[in-house]
Amino acid sequence: MSTSPIRRRHFLQSSTAFIALPALESLGFRRFASAAVPASPPKRLVFLGFGWGITTESWFPDIKQPGADYTLPEGLKPLARHKADFSVVQGLWNKYSNDGHWGSTMWLTGANRFGEPGQNFHNSISADQVAAAKLGLDTRFASLQLNGSENAEASGHGPGLSMAWDVSGKPIGGHKGPVEAYHRLFSKDTTPIEQQKAMLAQKRSVLDTVMENARVMQRGLGKTDKGKLDEYFQGIRDIETRLSKDEQWIGVPQPKAPIPEPAPGLAGKEEIKIMYDIMLAAMQTDSTRVLTYRQPVSTLLTSIGIKVAPHDMSHYHSTMGEKLEASKQRDLTQSDLLAGFIDKLKATKEADGSRLFDNIALAYGSNIRTEHSLDNCPTLLTGGGAGIKLGHNIVVSKDTPLCNAWLTLLHGLGVNVERHGDSSGVLKELIA
Question: In whole angstroms, what is the distance from residue 207 CA to residue 227 CA?
């Protein structure tokens, strides 16, 4: 029998995902007296997604200037001070994407909407959730899903409750707006501990009953129905995993918020700015290491005085003055907000003296390029956490899967899955 020490955290690995095991005392688990402080700064992964794309003519660098010596395009000018610390990757796309109004639905999954016979919608696990299954083992929240406070369709995101999708391809709920996100992270649970335990025990009892009834029902079902029931069992297992996480953190107080509570009613530009602060606070307190943010576009336009409808703006063409100018102004505002977020990531120090920026991988982009064009997805990558090449205009070969970039980030963060979505391998051009 092996005498090697058993790790405190265990997970099962398949070719595409990690699945956390429950917190078992026989495997060395001990309930935290307080939040654990990592010996070295942890790795983090952040996805910032927006709908309706960008202005192709002024957002992408010249493809004839690959490498570090390229001219920063007008739409990215607010990021000039960080030029050496981000890369733009051109030529990536999700080949199965076919809806020009869906900027987020398949962005992190690369799934084929019609991949399941007889279904008109199918999705698969998103890259953030693949990462969360490993990076989220020791944090209160395995991942955090944030949404803008506006209607997602108005901002060109498409179906979904956030940008995250679980292992069964089902949508994962997100927190709408800064106030809701803030309270999820930092509001104290005043429910007595014994009552919390009783509530969790009741939920487990209900789950056990449901699972037993489902097993009885399974006998004699046809192949199609068994497939549906297997999907149902996966949903039950997901709930069990969340209950195990809740049990692990009973009695551990919420961290003190490093920022004040946001004012209610923020929208557009100010909302995005505050949401970036909340994301920073979540990482500072190590509440989570995996975040997605489905950003508002409709209210962003309103907040900067643009009256053009967001969908109409995306149909700017090169001759439509008002729509084209609205699209360019949107790009500049989004780039300016991102530059401010990177400023703060660089200014935030870790326990070992490094910067938070050095330990994060951040992806910024959309599944839509412009209008209804889904090729050459706008992709900007930054942060030193995944060991990627920064400061470059990277032009990849035609038909390169966007999921190759996600697979490269996952591997750089130590999440060594074999593949993700429709990936064909890591993006070698991106590896430093």
Answer: 20
∠ CA 270-274-279, rounded to 5°: 145
Closest-CA residue to 337 (of 402, 279, 281, 290): 279
Please write the tens of the pLDDT for every residue from 230-265.
Answer: 666 666 566 656 666 666 767 778 899 999 999 999
CA-wise closest residue to 385 among 287, 283, 292:
283
pLDDT for 375 equals: 94
Kindly report, residue by residue over 162-188, the tens digit of the pLDDT: 999 999 999 999 999 999 999 999 988
User: Which among 364, 367, 376, 361 has a CA at the least distance from the CA of 410?
Assistant: 361
List of residues 6+ apart from 309 with CB closer than 8 A: none
The answer to whether the CB of 87 falls within 8 A of the CB of 430 is: yes
- Residue 192 pLDDT level (bands cut at 50, 70, 90): confident
172: which DSSP letter? -
- Which of 424, 265, 421, 277 is CA-nearest to residue 348? 277
Query: Strand 144-147 to strand 175-176: parallel, antiparallel, or no bridges (unpaired)?
Result: parallel
Asked whether the CA dihedral 146, 150, 156, 159 is positive or negative, the reply is positive
- Expressed in angstroms, the distance from the first to the final Cα of the chain is 41
Query: What distance in Å separates the CA atoms of residue 207 and residue 97, rounded to the nearest whole number?
Result: 36
Question: What type of residue sits at position 296?
Answer: P
Residues 6+ apart with CB under 8 A from 224: none
Reading the block at residue 200, the tokens are 């969790």
Neighbours of 39 (CB within 10 A): 8
Q: How far is CA 163 from CA 19, 48, 181, 297, 411, in A?
A: 20, 9, 15, 15, 21
DSSP output for 77-111: GGGGGGGGGEEEEEEEE-TT---TT-SSTTTTT--
Contact 345, 356 (CB under 8 A): yes
- Tell me if residue 53 falls in helix, strand or coil: coil
The vertex-41 CA angle with 145 and 343, nearest 5°, equals 65
Residue 205 CA neighbour count, 13 Å, CB half: 6
Across the range 377-399, mean pLDDT stands at 97
Q: C-alpha dihedral over 98, 99, 105, 109, to 10 degrees?
A: 10
Residues 6+ apart with CB under 8 A from 59: 73, 75, 76, 331, 378
Give counts: helices (H), strands (E), the chain. Answer: 10, 10
Strands (E), 117-273: 144-147, 175-176
Q: Give the E-state strand segments of 308-415 in sequence order.
A: 360-365, 379-382, 393-401
Spatial distance between the Cα atoms of 354 and 346, rounded to a whole number of angstroms = 9
